[in-house]
Known about the structure:
The chain is of the alpha+beta class and about 375 residues long. The chain is about 30% helix and about 25% strand. About 45% of the residues are buried.
Amino acid sequence: MKKIGVLGAGQLGRMLALAGYPLGHRFRFFDSASDSPAGLLADHWAFDYADTSALEKFAQGLDVVTYEFENVPVETVRHLEKFVPVYPSAIALEKAQDRFVEKSFFRELGIPTAKFSNGLRSGQTDGIGFPAVLKTRRMGYDGKGQVVINSEADLDNGLPLAKRISGYETDDLILEEFIKFERELSIIAVRNKSREMKFYPLIENHHRDGILRLSIAGGDVSAELQKQAEEYARAVMNALDYVGVLTIEFFEKDGRLLANEMAPRVHNSGHWTIEGSITSQFENHVRAVSDAPLGSTNPLGVCGMVNLVGNLPDVEFILKIEGAHLHLYDKAPRAKRKIGHITFVEKDMQSLQKKIEQVKEVYELF
Ligand code: AMP
């Protein structure tokens, strides 16, 4: 079986290893941070991502390298690629790390997005109108690095504001049309080296303060919407000759999907697949990067995932809820930090809602 290196040693890496061990694989992690949820399961190499000699040693004896977060420097991946195959390839990272490049890429592929513009100048909105959202092109996540703009005066104030938040120049910002969406949905797709592709059902995502709190899969999604999402994911994966799990986040507006962003990795909105699908997103990612056939993405019920953010609920209470699958990431509680999640796999939406109500008795979700 394969020796797999993972860049990033957070909870996603941990869940990758947990899925890969039954298949006989070995893991090794590389993460500049010293504390690591994955470190309990495998060697953790704590070096800077720019440390080329550490990267070369890390690559020795590995069959393949993958990553679990999309802000891995592209140069790190390009350097590793000289010694060991890395999936998804650096080009996928390049597209996903910059919101302007990413949205332009969607546009080239005919995938609808909100209107957007970069290189903003005082008082100019390039026909985007108000309200609009001003974002940093790079490094924003969980709602960080963005402000809503309601007027030209706001925009004039917003440019220096965003610069202050991020230290970026205005050319490093993107202005987007504000979408009054009905729902936020994501699709998790996977493709292997033999170009086999599979798709999980669309997931409905609910955020608070820009952070994912609740995901529901197997709910009220039309076959047409599912087909649309799969077509978009297929187009992205084929264009990049993609290998691994890919996630695309959408806004649903008037029955259409607008792509907001993509992540070249396993995703928080797919954690329910561990218990709720025949093959989890983590196992399918491991299968894809290790050149194996993909597993079925069929769901086993109506699934819900509650994120534990900042603090833990009464663990005993949660464990007493029938069907609760509790995952703790071995991370110290801290504001806005994802430290665990709970998954339910139920026969219908009504039963799922009941379980979520039970969680709400001891945990503030929204
Ligand atoms: P992002 O960092 O792009 O994922 O944005 C974080 C969250 O901000 C999204 O999940 C949406 O809830 C909201 N958001 C981002 N862009 C827009 C937009 N153009 N219109 C409306 N809401 C947005």
